[in-house]
Structure prediction request, 543 residues.
Amino acid sequence: MSEPSPDRFAATPSQWEGDPTNETPDEFESSEPRLWLGLSLLTWSVIFSCLLHGSVLIPAFLDVFRPHEADIDLEWLKSFDSLEGLGHGSSGRFAELDEASFHTKAEGPREAEPEPLAPEPDPDPEPEPEPEPEPERDPPKAEKKPQPKPEVAQPEAPRKPSTPKEVYSEGELPGLDRAGPNGLPAMEGYGPGNAVFTALIRLDRIRGTQFEEPTRKLLEQVPDYRIVLQGTEVDPVRDLDSMFMASADPVYVEETFLAVRHRLGSELLRQRLDSRFVERVPWSDARGYPTRDLVPPGSRYSDPRKVLMAGSDLALIVRPEWIAQLTGALPADAQMVAGVDLQSLDRAPSMLDGLAYIERAANGADTVILMSAMGARLAIPGVGRLTFEGAKVEIAGIDKPRLTIDLALATEDEARRFAQACPSLKKRVIAEVPWIAKSITRMLVERLTCTQSENFVAVAGAYTAEEAHRLLNIALPFVPRPAELAYLPPSPPREPPAVPSVPVDTPTPGDSTQPDIAPDAGSLQRDEHDGGDREERGQKQDP
Prediction:
């Protein structure tokens, strides 16, 4: 705005004093036009000028009164993401409110606006009720779980009284130690008298094979067979299904326990046993079981063991002090009842209950021989005596026989050293064997492999049926023949089989027709049940 020209207010003193028409300065100011609020134009010009020039200070004033972050509630900042969704789109928070309530709250005081946000847990997706109904659908699943609970209820069945037969006739035989890489069983717990050596032979798996005849010859030379069954009509392969032997000292035959599974029945077997000697051995009763001495009283041969008929198909050879252990109730800590709930049985089992199913200790369907020994000391030619914590042996297979051995040593280091020494040990064994058995020994030993596993050494070898057959024939001369057996009482004389007479037509003179030749007596078929004839045949083959 331009200031008024100075000429407008300039006047000579004469003009002010002599001209009546002229106005004084006070009259001039009062006659100047007035604007708003009665202020003059000059006054409003000054006010607008100050406002215009002071507008540059507005940002500074705004910064002073700006709200700072420290004055803002942090909880609102944390939920700012969820607040940003309010009122956006048809799915926003305000979309859920009816129009009337929205206007009511909108018209209310500003402090009431956060009321829709009062249910803060609503924006959180965690407490959404939608997934919770799904667990409510699980009750049918929970009902399905009880449905298979008949299987869970099955363990209650053993709580009901059962018989010891069920303990040993089903599942794994209790008390068998199968530690080792091949899981072979240690059967010492099934033998009386602190047995440290056991052997099980499945004769029913040899019967009818190419190994039947060499096995028969071998068993007929075993001392126990010669004492009890020699000269009888009991065939060791045809009439026996299995033989289980246990001993605390295998060197002495009097310390040997024997359990024989047979197919003859108790009455027929007793008749065959009574035909062993000329003098009949009387039977007696021991704890409800028929028993008798091995030999007639007063014999020069002395053996304290007895024959005990443990059932219709099971016969034992035992020492008298073992009878109570075999027939009495087993203690709770006995190896034969390891893991058995004795409270569920109608009676406490005895060793006879377990021995009735000892054949089930065989690992597989083709197992023929099982042996186990505790604290075994093996004399190896060229190596000397080696002591092992235990040794388990299995011979399995008829068409392709397999030899498997688990050797337990004291430590892993000893097992490792033994496995590493196996190749040199095999050479030394072959070199030290007499020449007469060198070929069969080389065939047997060179096939063996040694593998270390923890404190065990697994020894394995595979052979042909012909090689196993040859080995059985060669083993016959090595069967022990105690000199004391020469004092056994005599057997009754066996009548030789009658030779049927075949009539021969006498040719008439001049008749060129020759009569049929009578068969030679030596070619007649012998009765396979004739033990006496078989005994004579075996003696001829005995080197």
